[in-house]
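Human: Cast an eye over this sequence-structure pair and say how the chain folds.
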Amino acid sequence: MESVFVKLILLLSIFGLFLFFINKVLRKWLNVKKKELFSYGHVNDKHKKIDWTIRIIFIVFSFIGFLTNVKREPLEHIWYLETHILLFVFIIASETTRVIMEKKYAENRNDYIFSTIQLVIISIFLLLMFTTDFFGLLKW
């Protein structure tokens, strides 16, 4: 069991490093400024309101999903109310909103290209992780 966690941490670390280097190259190539660490990076107030609306909806659905699925048998859970599915939808919705707002309102027109590439890479990684059970590391 320990080796599974070590492999998962190694896998996530490799992806993190890959994303870090891709971001570094893309920032130079597209001339995009690095955003502050631990900031939401909203483009304007409209983006902030939409982003927080998405976050609140995610929290509400997370509670609904938890309360619904905790009462059911483990093999009868409603799949679209599972936390990992809701988290995937949240990431896609939040980052798609960012791309749209950056395309419309950002000072640097390359910001949305950078965000789009980042969204595609993260989406592919998450889909691979969910569909392959972390490349066979998790056995349900």
User: Anything to note?
Assistant: The two ends are 13 Å apart (CA to CA). The chain has five helices and no strands. The first helix runs from residue 2 to 30. The chain has a mean pLDDT of 89.
